[in-house]
Amino acid sequence: MSHRPMAVAATVLTLALAACSSAASPTPGSSAAASMSMGSVASTAPSASQSGTARCAVTSDATGSATIELASFAFGPAVTIKAGQAVVFTNKDGTAHTVTEGTGGSAASSACVDQRLAAGSSVTVTFSQPGDYQITCKIHSSMQTVVHVQ
What we know:
Helices cover 29% and strands 36% of the residues. By secondary structure, the chain is of the alpha+beta class.
């Protein structure tokens, strides 16, 4: 008989722990709702690749409408293009540079281009949305230019 109170106590303890653990975790309905909510939020915010709305992107197969040369540790002059057109950046220096959206050698927080260019190489960047794009070299912070997109 002395074993029976221990068995009852163990059962009560097991039930109490089960109740606590289910109370501490979300109910199946609420976690499913949270999952469904997050899924619908993700699907309503299209990615740049789904919508094609990236502000700019490296597009190796695009034909440039303008060219900016990187020579003598300077970018060529600012250019003006239309939205959807591309700019070819060509490194004419004997050292590496970057083509980076930003200023003073620092990338913008959401830089749409940050491409390293070896000496003698080029990169083509298509600018999809109107605006002024500040371009810098992260290696040589004094190098600056602007791409004006109409």
